[in-house]
Design brief:
Layout: H1 3-18, H2 27-42, H3 50-61, E1 71-74, E2 78-81, H4 95-108, H5 121-130, H6 154-162, E3 166-171, E4 180-192, E5 195-202, E6 205-210, E7 214-220, H7 232-235, E8 251-258, H8 262-267, E9 275-280, E10 283-290, H9 294-301, E11 307-311, H10 313-332
Antiparallel strand pairs: 1-2, 3-4, 3-7, 4-5, 5-6, 8-10, 8-11, 9-10
């Protein structure tokens, strides 16, 4: 058992003794009670030292853990709370605290139907009950889609990453006519633009597999797991989205945004590396340093005619080609209505 858990058991035991109005506890009694409590939880002999209990009492008296317990020694021998109604489990909160807690509950409630948070339902309900939360409507609304296909896979993928399990995933991409099987070592779960992806490896080859394209998942118990020790912040630092190339160096992407849309880009940067190159009469020139990938293209295309890529040339020509194709689509479209 961890030392932190041992300490919590001792504090709980001391609290029970100190608020007992019908029994007198000496320091030796408190040591005995703590030792007995640890024996009950651990199932083995566990002796608590006098020094440990004295430090526990000192910590409970102090502001260290927010208790400030009114522990007194009377008759120079026995320990108790001077306030018979006190307990370290009584949380003192003011009206401002209650409002803040209620707001937090309203946010948490939005995740109640999300598979990863199913086990939180009871906790959220207890919070609501304990703070006498009203049935007020949520003021903060988070962008989410519980009906998104593939969310049912999150639990088994999360468990595989946590417990370092190799998986065999039957997967069918949008472009494939038939499904493929991948034996992979799962490393990270990544959410981007309301879609979930599994970042995984097959030996040294990296995959980012969309959960909504997974058809079946099986644990491969006989294959030893390879842990890449990926740090999400480091792994995704040079990209927009989820597609990371192990060989591509990040490039400086310079682009112009007109004056109507520049404030949106300034207040919600495309990437952490974003900086302003220059301010023009008609808009702003920005620069980011990222790998060139599909998600970046989609982001830039989304600004339509209000954004122009200056550099690199390859990216500019690619977006220009896409806009020309889009223009042709509209020219060739035959409308069957006059609205």
């Amino acid at each position: 058992m961890s030392s932190n858990k041992n300490a919590l058991i001792r504090y709980k035991t001391l609290d029970k003794c100190l608020k007992n109005k019908y029994k007198k506890y000496t320091l030796e009694d408190l040591i005995h009670e703590c030792s007995e409590a640890l024996f009950e939880f651990e199932g083995k002999e566990s002796f608590v030292s006098k020094r440990t209990v004295q430090l526990d009492l000192q910590n409970m008296r102090s502001e260290k853990f927010g208790y400030e317990a009114p522990i007194e020694v009377y008759e120079r021998k026995y320990y108790r709370y001077s306030d018979p109604e006190y307990s370290i489990h009584n949380i003192s909160v003011n009206e401002s605290d209650l409002k803040a807690m209620n707001n937090a509950v309203q946010i948490l409630k939005q995740f109640k139907d999300f598979s990863m948070f199913k086990e939180m339902n009871g906790v959220i309900q207890k919070l609501e009950d304990s703070i006498h939360s009203t049935s007020q409507k949520s003021i903060i609304h988070l962008d989410k889609n519980e009906q998104l296909k593939g969310l049912e896979h999150i639990d088994i993928l999360y468990d595989a990453i946590l417990n370092k399990k190799v998986l065999k995933i039957t997967y069918r991409s949008f472009k494939a006519r038939e499904s493929d099987s991948y034996v992979v070592h799962p490393q990270l779960l990544k959410e981007f633009n309301n879609r979930w992806f599994l970042i995984c490896f097959n030996k040294d080859y990296a995959y980012n597999l969309a959960l909504d394209r997974m058809e079946n998942i099986q644990v491969e118990e006989k294959i030893e797991y390879i842990d890449k020790n990926l740090d999400g912040d480091e792994y995704f630092k040079d990209i927009v989205g989820v597609t990371v190339s192990p060989t591509m160096a990040p490039r400086n992407v310079v682009f112009f945004v007109d004056s109507h849309n520049a404030p949106y880009v300034k207040t919600k940067p495309f990437h952490a590396s974003q900086e302003i190159v220059s301010e023009l009469d008609g808009g702003t020139v920005f620069k980011i340093c990222v790998q060139l990938n599909y998600e970046l293209e989609r982001l830039l295309l989304g600004f339509g005619e209000s954004l122009v890529v200056y550099k690199p040339r390859k990216l500019r020509l690619r977006l220009q080609e896409k806009f020309m194709e889009a223009h042709k689509n509209y020219e060739n479209f035959v409308a069957d209505d006059e609205d």
